[in-house]
């Protein structure tokens, strides 16, 4: 990964931190994206403690805010001439319904629209790479998901699990529709299932009962390092360069859900996401 630059969102903890570390070990320059400078600094210190020569930089954005996503991408476009790998890893799980500053339900905004918009904003840098890769961390939860086109914000019928599964299904649909619509052949997109991983995702914004359920569930989970393996494999492997648009688990392609195979939903979601992000032309904007 020498001379390759990778951006990892949500790199300050959990799977994202393990991904960033592994990419550094492989010699890449890694930009850790976090929502505060303090968290980014702590992350870089933690990585350098283990890997003193790690080539690190940071970029800041609260990914629930489209304004901040655009600002972070603009900063990166000023500082860098290319980006080889974008890992859309950041994600959240929220027990209760709330809207972001853009008037969008939080899981939909952070887990789906943020990867959709950040990828689009960084396309000018990605297309400067010889082998640009976009890796979006989804989940097998997408098998239980459905896109509620009549109410994606789930204003009428919010449940944390429903919102999470919907957003993770959107990650898979986005990945395959990106492949279908892309205008540059070399751009590759991958959706990843990290498996059940022992992180704090289910403790941060959850009611106590949901937090307890996550504490029990994650007991059987794998380490963040193991959870990061497929993302890292897709970032560095020479074999996967040409395989794009698929769903991956344990460093292998895996069948996605039936709903994720719907071309009609993929196309409809793309148009809806463009509208929700205020994008006119995705690839040439
Ligand atoms: N853990 C699992 O079993 C599992 C299974 C399947 C898929 N996943 C997926 O794996 C990814 C990583 O999750 P994880 O388990 O490693 O959880 P985690 O430890 O909670 O990490 C999530 C990361 O996303 C960041 N993030 C959340 N909301 C953000 C926002 N508004 N702006 C900027 N950053 C934000 C977090 O930052 P803060 O620290 O500031 O909150 C954190 O760095 C997620 O996409 C998740 O859906 C996890």
UniProtKB/TrEMBL annotation:
Source taxon at top rank: Bacteria
GO molecular-function term, one example from the UniProt record: oxidoreductase activity
EC number from the UniProt entry: 1.-.-.-
Protein name, as recorded: SDR family oxidoreductase
PANTHER family for the chain: PHOSPHATIDYLINOSITOL-GLYCAN BIOSYNTHESIS CLASS F PROTEIN, PHOSPHATIDYLINOSITOL-GLYCAN BIOSYNTHESIS CLASS F PROTEIN-RELATED
Gene3D superfamilies from the UniProt entry: NAD(P)-binding Rossmann-like Domain
Keywords of this entry: Oxidoreductase
InterPro entries: NAD(P)-bd_dom_sf (IPR036291), SDR_fam (IPR002347)
SUPFAM superfamilies hit by this protein: NAD(P)-binding Rossmann-fold domains
One Pfam family cited in the UniProt record for this chain: adh_short
């Amino acid at each position: 990964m020498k001379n390759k630059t990778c951006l990892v969102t949500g790199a300050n903890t959990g799977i994202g931190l393990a991904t960033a570390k592994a990419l550094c070990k492989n010699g890449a320059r890694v930009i850790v994206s976090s929502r505060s400078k303090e968290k980014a600094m702590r992350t870089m210190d933690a990585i350098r403690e283990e890997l003193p020569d790690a080539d690190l930089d940071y970029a800041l954005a609260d990914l629930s805010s489209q304004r901040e996503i655009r600002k972070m991408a603009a900063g990166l476009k000023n500082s860098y001439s290319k980006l080889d790998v974008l890992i859309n890893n950041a994600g959240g799980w929220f027990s209760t319904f709330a809207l972001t500053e853009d008037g969008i339900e939080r899981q939909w905004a952070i887990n789906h629209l943020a990867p959709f918009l950040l990828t689009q904003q960084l396309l000018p840098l990605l297309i400067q790479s010889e082998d640009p890769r976009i890796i979006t961390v989804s989940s097998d939860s997408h098998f239980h998901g459905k896109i509620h086109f009549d109410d994606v914000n789930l204003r009428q019928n919010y449940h944390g699990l429903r919102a999470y599964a919907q957003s993770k299904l959107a990650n898979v649909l986005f990945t395959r529709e990106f492949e279908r619509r892309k205008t540059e052949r070399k751009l590759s997109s991958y959706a990843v299932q990290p498996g059940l991983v022992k992180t704090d995702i289910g403790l941060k914004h959850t009611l106590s009962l949901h937090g307890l359920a996550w504490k029990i569930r994650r007991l059987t989970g794998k380490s963040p390092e193991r959870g990061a393996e497929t993302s890292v494999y897709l970032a560095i492997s020479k074999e996967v360069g040409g395989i794009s648009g698929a769903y991956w688990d344990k460093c292998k392609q895996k069948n996605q859900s039936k709903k994720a195979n719907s071309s009609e939903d993929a196309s409809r979601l793309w148009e809806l996401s463009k509208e929700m992000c205020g994008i006119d032309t995705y690839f040439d904007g």
